[in-house]
Amino acid sequence: MTLLLPGIGDQMVSLFIIFLALVIVILILGHKVKKVDPNGKTPKWLVPLIALVELINGFTKNNIGKRWKSYAPYFLTLAIYLLFQNIASVFGLVNPTSYMVTNAALAMITFAIIQITGFRSLGVGGYLKSFVGPVPWLCFIMIPINIISEFALPVSLTLRLTGNILAGNVISMLIKSFGPWTAIVMPIINVYFDLMSGVIQTFVFVILTIIFTSMKIDDSEKIYQGI
Question: What span, in angstroms and rounded, lies between the C-alpha atoms of 142 and 4?
Fold first, then answer.
């Protein structure tokens, strides 16, 4: 039995379609939002969007602190973009996140933001000093360990997301290969691996991004004062 996994071309086509669709939808929503009366009744179609924005903003405020406005747009964009990549198979497309390069690109962007945050919050001296801890007198051991742990983050994010999405695709194809009778259980399988798992993996990736970014911020800046 041979499993035919999607090629790079299929992945890129799906990635382009998702990107184009999101751009069109966002432009339409942006046009409609401009017409909404801020003092009037909130349209029903806008309620889930407001809830999503408030969810991301609230979590960002609690973890990032006073600079949350600089980070919330990225976290929200990452959540939306990643979600539709993870559940692309629901729309008959190939999941771009089953391709490691796609996930590595997102992980490296996140890694860059985390490191820039460290420089921005702690300063160059404080950022470099963080590699010495938590046991300064063992700096000759701690520095290599801390450096490795930093570069292990994007690798971990990439492999975790790729493994979970790709595993779901492989399991679905394995079950389908057992015969026509699998049509009975495939709707349940598809709901879990194509939808629920995609939502869960999006949540995990975004939450880890926020948490690791927060770890690079000085504790004095994490106190949100309603700015």
Answer: 45
Residue 4 gets the label, from left (phi > 0), alpha (psi -120 to 50) or beta, of: beta
Rg (CA), the chain: 21
Distance in angstroms (rounded) separating the CA atoms of residues 206 and 56? 10
Answer left, alpha or beta for residue 16, where phi above 0 means left and psi between -120 and 50 means alpha: alpha
Alpha-helix residue ranges (DSSP H) falling in 87-196: 100-129, 139-176, 186-190
Please give the single-letter amino acid code of residue 195. L
CA pair distance 118, 126, nearest whole angstrom: 8
pLDDT in 10s for each residue of the chain, 227 residues = 334 445 567 778 888 899 899 999 999 988 888 888 878 788 888 888 889 999 999 999 988 888 888 899 999 999 999 999 988 888 878 888 888 888 999 999 999 999 999 888 888 888 888 888 766 666 778 888 888 988 999 999 999 998 888 887 777 777 777 767 667 777 777 777 778 888 899 999 999 999 999 988 887 776 655 54
What residues contact 49, with CB distance under 8 A and at least 6 apart?
A: 29
Q: How many CB atoms lie within 10 A of CB 117?
A: 21
User: 4 is written with which tokens?
Assistant: 């035919």
How many Å apart are CA 48 and CA 202, to the nearest integer? 17
Residue 133 has a CB neighbour count (10 Å cut-off) of 12
Query: What is the b/e burial string over 52-64, where b = at least 16 CB atoms within 10 angstroms of the residue's CB?
Result: eeeebbebbbebb
